[in-house]
Amino acid sequence: MEKKDQLLSEQGACPMGNHEKSTVEPEAAEGGCPMAYGGITSGGHTSLTYNSYLKVEDLKSLQICQSEPAHHDEPLFIIIHQTYELWFKLIIHELDLVVELMKENRVRKATHFMKRVSAIMKVLVAQIHILETMAPRDFLGFRHKLNPASGFQSSQFREIEFMAGLKDARMLIHFQSDEEAYASLTRRFNNETLGDVFYDLLRRHGFKLPATKPSDDEETARKLESQRIRELCRMYEDETLTDLHDLAESFVDLDELISLWRTHHVTVVERIIGFKRGTGGSEGVAYLRSTVNKRCFPELWNLRTALV
Ligand code: HEM
């Protein structure tokens, strides 16, 4: 039996029907590229088709409903989360490159790829509203089946936050039962952030950006921060520093878009579940609202107040 037919017969009539685990075998990735397509080479493979290259049948087999019989709206809920995770994967891929480019002092290239990240983020902000076509009572038709799974456990979302500078060790708790995610998140947690690498780049361009040490008292830390902010203002005042300014602004774009995503997400959440607690155990809307003003690059925001 062909793989496609086998998948369909195992799933029964409804392509979104339940089954315990996916029948898709992970294939070994080729080459060094983390985005490599297993089993298919890009050059000279005569049987390459749109569907085989993009693994469309495999993709279509990955929506496994928990409700039984499958609730009509559960595929929407699964697919929207899966598309977010795919875009998160690409964002992480791009941010890793941006870090490397900054280390090589390739400022314009780094800005170029940050623009791609922003373009993706704009889609992610808009996309959440598709969920508003799901009526609150329809969601209640399968929500109980999702417990205790929650957006808290999106390791890629946390990876992006950690890379962008929002490191909160308490978030690691949600991944203790997922060895792989825990290990990669811990690695990200200990790694330098985009901001760290950007500041090092600026130091190589002659910016005096004194680092705060954990042993510094509050007053010293405040003084050092205002010194850094004064120095960062130069990017916004001196037109010969346009390339650095544009890169800095691309980080502010990312920050703003993450915050916009949070705002749109919590609004949709309130519209669908009101003030019910989250499946991950948080207060729900109240918790999500408390995250809206988090800033990944606080000094790039604060310098605006200092500009004259
Ligand atoms: C019906 C739609 C949705 C509802 C009702 C919902 C609800 C919630 C709630 C209540 C939380 C707080 C954590 C908890 O206690 O579980 C949360 C967190 C989260 N959700 Fe959603 N969500 C929805 C859709 C989505 C979608 C489409 C995504 C896309 C990735 C998403 C990603 C996240 C993330 C990343 C968090 C963690 C946010 C943080 O801690 O800052 N959610 N969600």
Q: What characteristics describe this protein?
A:
mainly alpha; binds protoporphyrin IX containing FE
What is the strand and helix layout of this fold?
Layout: H1 3-11, H2 50-54, H3 56-60, H4 74-103, H5 107-127, H6 136-143, H7 155-164, H8 179-190, H9 194-204, H10 218-232, H11 234-237, H12 242-273, H13 285-291, H14 298-306
The structure holds protoporphyrin IX containing FE (HEM).
Protoporphyrin IX containing FE is lined by residues 80-81, 84, 128, 131, 139, 150-152, 154, 157, 265, 269, 272-273, 278-282, 284, 287-288, 291.
Structural notes for this entry:
By secondary structure, this protein is mainly alpha-helical. 58% of the residues lie in helices and 0% in strands. It has helices at residues 3-11, 50-54, 56-60, 74-103, 107-127, 136-143, 155-164, 179-190, 194-204, 218-232, 234-237, 242-273, 285-291, 298-306. Helix 4 runs antiparallel to helix 5, helix 7 packs parallel to helix 8 (179-190) and helix 12 (242-273) packs antiparallel against helix 13. Residues 1-15 and 19-31 have low confidence and may be disordered. The site of protoporphyrin IX containing FE has 24 residues, from helix 4, helix 12 and helix 13.
Continuous helix count? 14
Number of separate strands: 0
- Name the shape in a single word: globular
Structural class: mainly alpha
Give the CATH level 1 class. Answer: Mainly Alpha
What does the radius of gyration come to? 23 Å
The CATH architecture classification is Up-down Bundle
